[in-house]
Amino acid sequence: MLERYHRELLNFLARQVNDRETAADLAQESYVRVLNAQQSGQAVLDMRALLYRTARNLLIDQHRRAALRRHDDLDAIPEDQHPPAPQHLQPDEALASQQVIRTYVAAIEALPPRCREAFVLHVFDDLCHAQVARRMGISVSMVEKHVVRGMVACKLCERRLRQDGRADPGPA
């Protein structure tokens, strides 16, 4: 079940740390921790959410360790001056990001199945139109139409988010 989130989680982590190898290590550690929690008998209601929460916690831990390593004398750092987590990992910011992500995911999931598949293969798996066409057994023209439809759905989603003022979907 967890395999279906691997590429998505790896891409998320790679964007956060700007290093594919570090991202792969963090993804692996996230999987290990989630599987340990699952095997220990803990009820896991939303596997994806637990996986992302674990990965975010590992990112925060890594950031804190790196910040502390930059200081020569760790004992000289006053407790009230410990470096904060990056802005995008702050609780309010994280909640707003989750809301935006859920809204986009809902918009993408609302696409017809073949359209959604072409869009995901192109945008998230980074396949060119010709590769998507070969994989799906359709024409490049049809892939282009599916991708455009997905982009339009995301643009509409972005407009709704801006109008609702619920969260900032990012740069326009």
Strand-residue proportion: under 5%
3D shape: globular
Q: What order do the helices and strands follow?
A: HHHHHHH
- How many structural domains can be distinguished in the coordinates? 2
- Report the CATH topology name of the largest domain: Arc Repressor Mutant, subunit A
| Main beta-sheet annotation | none
CATH architecture of the largest domain: Orthogonal Bundle
* CATH homologous superfamily grouping of the largest domain: Winged helix-like DNA-binding domain superfamily/Winged helix DNA-binding domain
The first-to-last residue Cα distance is 35 Å
Binned, the helix content reads 55-70%
Describe this structure in words.
The chain starts with 5 loop residues before the first helix and ends in an 8-residue tail after the last helix. The longest helix has 25 residues, at 140-164. The protein contains 7 helices and no strands. The protein has helices at residues 6-17, 20-39, 47-69, 91-109, 113-123, 129-136, 140-164. The protein has 172 residues and is an all-alpha fold.
Give a brief outline of the structure.
The protein is mainly alpha-helical. Helices cover 69% and strands 0% of the residues. Helix 2 crosses helix 3 (47-69) and helix 5 crosses helix 6.
Looking at this protein, list some descriptive labels.
172 residues, mainly alpha, Arc Repressor Mutant, subunit A, 0% strand
